[in-house]
Write a structure and sequence with these properties.
single chain; alpha/beta; Rossmann fold; 10 strands
């Protein structure tokens, strides 16, 4: 079975000398893949290149076997995206926002709008203006919009960022339910390691623009009490090697 996401030697360096350096990642069908690292580590840069929002200086990305640089439409045909914050027209209702987004997909009708509202738990609030939504409700609306086209891969950048505990749990439960019931593959970035441990089966750790470890969460935590402890052990080893290089 071919991987859903293949990233090879992905590189992009910004004027401040920060960026990403020869990142290699693989996401298999059915994964909830956690892309973990502190703020500024390079997670959003990788995701923006993956979705065509910015260009790489080196390397390549394939989604479902299609190169994002040369076969963009085919690569993105089965992909839903929520990068950084969920954008919406605050003067419109949640439902109206989804209806506007659905115009980009001729095959999407009223029934699908109803379905995604139900999936993310916004049906009772669908006619309220988004300006009155909480941050968690806005994130759920963004997730609903990303799901309109019935994607097979959802790329979510920090979907629980800024949410309270209840909001984080709600988003996590939605992701895990969709992975199980609709067989959607997820690539989810976060700087919250506890969320990664609860939600993901596989994970990649990015540190200062480099992917330092990738594998099953169960394998990453071997020999450690928690994923947090395993992460700190991994990063300390990276620093030790760099200090002696």
């Amino acid at each position: 079975m071919k991987p859903v996401v293949e990233i090879n030697n992905l590189t992009k360096i910004y004027k401040n000398k920060r960026g990403i350096h020869q990142v290699n990642m693989t996401v298999q069908q059915g994964d909830i893949y956690g892309f973990f690292g502190p703020n500024g580590a390079g997670k959003t840069s990788v995701m923006k290149i993956m979705t065509g929002l910015t260009r790489a200086q080196g390397g390549n990305v394939k989604l479902f076997g299609y190169d994002i640089a040369t076969q963009y439409e085919q690569a993105m045909a089965k992909v839903g995206v929520l990068i950084e914050t969920a954008e919406a027209y605050t003067y419109m209702s949640g439902r109206r926002n989804l209806e506007q987004a659905a115009r980009f997909y001729p095959e999407i009708g009223k029934q699908r709008v109803d379905e995604v509202l139900e999936i993310v738990g916004l049906t009772p609030y669908q006619y309220e203006k988004v300006g009155g939504y909480s941050l968690g409700m806005k994130q759920r609306l963004g997730l609903a919009a990303a799901m309109l086209s019935k994607p097979e891969l959802l790329i979510l950048d920090e979907p629980t960022n800024g949410l309270d505990i209840e909001g984080m749990v709600h988003i996590r439960e939605i992701i895990m339910r969709l992975a199980q019931e609709e067989q959607i593959t997820f690539l989810v970035s976060s700087h919250l390691i506890h969320e990664m441990e609860l939600m993901c089966n596989r994970m990649g750790i990015i540190h200062q623009g480099k992917l330092v470890r990738e594998g099953l969460v169960a394998d990453l935590v071997k020999g450690s009490a928690t994923l947090e402890e395993a992460y700190l052990r991994e990063i300390n080893e990276v620093r030790r090697i760099a200090a002696h290089a």
